[in-house]
């Protein structure tokens, strides 16, 4: 199978299964496990603990031994992690399950993007990433419908199906995923491979600024990622939807986000080309995200507030392929997965610190303070992108 098509297929299935899992898991954790806001944030912290410990080692494994092997192992472990969460409603085991499946995800993070970047020799790589993200949003819609349909029967059923899908995908890739451009690099240690990645990052004029970008993107995201459904369900109580079951509201919410994400990615696909345009669009979208969060936080009218949230989520969908393409184009093949995983770890460090910060704010000041701090951090992200744009203009 063509590498570009297989990459898009993987991203599509990954998002289908992850959407089914996460849509159902929110209801599972809030309605069945009765988790508190601080516990929901701590679940996010569990994910980032796994990133901190495993992101770089698994990226080095992908660069030294096999990106295919890394991806296949990753899908199997994710599936097993999903199964663990289904075993009990106890918070501690739900916490452990997050660490397990995120450990699996670190095998995929960096390795999959590095694989397609090399197999296609970076030809139209922005187009590939944007198309994959666009199709993944369509699969997200299908995943929401699947979670809704299965969740009506039993909210745990979509979670079970998601785990099975990951296991089946790993078996499929054992047969159909090829590595033509990859060469094993066995002449030095994993530690040396990691040092090569760090040296490249901090000697590169753009990537050393991008380190701060990645850290701030991690720092902003944890509070809103863990609490958005909780806040939405609270705000919906002030609208005509207040009597609907939680699974209906969460499904509709994710459906709307996916549709808006497709629209956003189609816009980005049409107007973004390689070079400075990538950074300029990245900059503008970050500013729009900050604006949307402030509207979400401070508008007293529940409907206007929800519009602000969906504006934030729509613009957020556009930044993922831009973020990935910056790393892919600025990094040589032999350290690509290592560098991408290092940035994943930097993002993870930001998210761990964010978990501590946002949990404290949740206890002391409430959700409005969390949204305000989150919007402010995004302005810092915009500033780092502004610096990179200025460097590109100077070097043009």
Can you give a write-up of this model?
- The longest helix is centred in the N-terminal third of the chain and has 30 residues.
- This protein is 84% helix and 0% strand.
- The protein has 396 residues and is mainly α.
- α2 runs parallel beside α4, α5 packs antiparallel against α14 and α8 packs across α14.
- The radius of gyration is 20 Å and the shape is globular.
- The protein has one domain: Growth Hormone, Chain: A (Up-down Bundle), CATH 1.20.1250.20.
Name given to the CATH homologous superfamily = MFS general substrate transporter like domains
Alpha plus pi helix count: 15
Give me the strand/helix succession: HHHHHHHHHHHHHHH
Question: Which class best fits the helix and strand makeup?
Answer: mainly alpha
Topology-level CATH name:
Growth Hormone, Chain: A
Number of domains: 1
Question: What percentage of residues falls in helices of 4 or more residues?
Answer: over 70%
Give the integer mean of the pLDDT values: 86
Look at the structure and give the CATH class: Mainly Alpha
Per DSSP E runs of 2 or more residues, the count of β-strands stands at: 0
Distance between the termini: 38 Å
């Amino acid at each position: 199978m063509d590498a570009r098509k297989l990459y898009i297929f993987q991203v599509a299935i990954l998002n289908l299964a992850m959407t089914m899992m996460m849509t159902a898991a929110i209801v599972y954790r809030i309605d069945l496990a009765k988790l508190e806001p601080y516990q929901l944030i701590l679940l996010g912290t569990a994910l980032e603990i796994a990133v901190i410990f495993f992101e770089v080692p698994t990226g080095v494994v992908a660069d030294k031994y096999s990106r295919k092997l890394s991806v296949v192992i990753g899908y199997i472990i994710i599936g097993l992690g999903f199964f663990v969460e289904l075993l009990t409603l106890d918070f501690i085991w739900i916490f452990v399950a997050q660490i397990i499946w995120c450990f699996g995800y670190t095998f995929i993070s960096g390795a999959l993007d590095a694989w397609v970047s090399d197999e296609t020799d970076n030809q139209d790589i922005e187009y590939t990433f944007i198309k994959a993200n666009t199709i993944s949003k369509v699969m997200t819609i299908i995943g929401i419908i699947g979670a809704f349909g299965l969740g009506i029967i039993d909210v745990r059923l979509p979670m079970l199906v998601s785990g099975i899908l990951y296991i089946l995908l790993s078996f499929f890739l054992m047969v159909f995923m090829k590595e033509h451009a990859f060469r094993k690099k066995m002449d030095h240690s994993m530690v040396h491979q990691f040092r090569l990645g760090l040296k490249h990052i901090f000697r590169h004029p753009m990537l050393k600024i991008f380190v701060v970008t990645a850290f701030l993107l991690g720092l902003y995201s944890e509070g809103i990622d863990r609490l958005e459904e909780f806040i939405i369900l609270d705000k919906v109580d002030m609208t005509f939807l207040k009597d609907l079951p939680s699974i209906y509201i969460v499904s509709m919410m994710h459906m709307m986000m996916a549709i808006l994400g497709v629209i956003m990615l189609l816009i980005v696909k049409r107007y973004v080309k390689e070079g400075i345009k990538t950074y300029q669009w990245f900059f503008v979208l970050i500013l729009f995200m900050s604006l949307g969060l402030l509207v979400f936080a401070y508008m007293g009218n529940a409907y206007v507030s929800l519009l602000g949230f969906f504006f934030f989520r729509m613009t957020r969908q556009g930044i993922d392929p831009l973020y990935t393409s910056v790393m892919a184009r600025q990094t040589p093949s032999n350290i690509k997965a290592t560098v991408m995983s290092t940035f994943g770890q930097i993002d993870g460090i930001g998210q761990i610190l964010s978990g501590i910060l946002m949990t404290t704010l949740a206890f002391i000041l409430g959700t409005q303070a969390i949204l305000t701090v989150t919007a402010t951090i995004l302005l810092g992200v915009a500033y780092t992108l502004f610096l990179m744009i200025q460097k590109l203009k100077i070097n043009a």
